[in-house]
Amino acid sequence: MEKIGIAIIGCGGITLQNHLPGLALCPQTRVVALCDSDPATLQRASQQCGVTACYTDYNELLKRSDVTAAIIATPNVVHAPIALAVIKAGKHVLCEKPLAMNSKEALEMFRAAEAAGVRHMTAFTYRFVPAFRYLAHLVKSGAIGQPYHLRVQRFQDWGQRNLGWRQVARLAGSGELGDMLSHRLDYAHVLMGQVKSLVADLHRFHDVREGQASDLEDWVAIVSRFTNNATGVFESTKLATGRGESARSQDYCEVNGSEGTVVYFMSAKPELHLGRRGSSTLESVPVPKEFLKWPRSPRDPSQGDPLFSFRYDQNFEFVDAIVNQRPCVPSFLDGARVQELMDTAMQSAKEKRWLDVRYAEPWK
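Below the sequence we write its predicted structure tokens.
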């Protein structure tokens, strides 16, 4: 078949670390154009992947007939306008998380993509972690009985380092909530279903980072109740001193059920920890072979750094959905549902009270 032409809009660290290596594993694709508002960032990406068609205006890029799909990896504030332009041009779209600045924008993106008949995907990268996929399978299959509690933590040590646009409210919308906890709110929907109500708190410890003003939170916590009567506790921070950063810092997910407990730590070793009713210890259980990579992915799980290589399956899923004309997982609707939780959490923190979560009808 003719190769799928991919354009990348936003060529910073996520593109270099995740998207370009992931697309390199997809023989059906060819990166045909790059776009970034910063010429130096654009040049660096161009040198890494050898693509010479470079733009600072995404509208010009979208005029190209060889662009079949676009990946958006920009600051959050321009996710919605860029995605809507991509969709209007009739091109498939993968957008980084959080999907938008608020749920209204996110739902508009979903509805536009569905109406246009293009594939749409939210980059909830941690959906592709083998251990998380196996954990979700165990929970959904009833292996731990009725779920009682979900508990997640994302602890990193960034100290007072500059976070770039992620510490600026007008560019990011939220801080640690959107940056790292959004992934774990996606966990909640996958593992437990919809959230009934929640109470949240946000806090900023550093108003200045390396001489640059910061007006967003660097710590967030949420307590929730689900419609299935389970409870959830979420915490994420950039200030867990000594915990490190990126893939080698604390990433923890635990589900307690009536018949057992299952625990996932981000680790180079693909395993879970299981506790069974009547036992006082957790046992290590390897992740079965069929969960080590996304279905049909060409990636070899024995190659590369397992703390990073699982991310490449995300790009395969996007391409495979385009090839087979099926919905992407996770979709823009998944991104919008998380955005609804984030909006509610921000309102709860502002009003200092529990709030019901009101999920909008997808088509209204």
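The CA atoms of residues 234 and 248 lie 19 Å apart.
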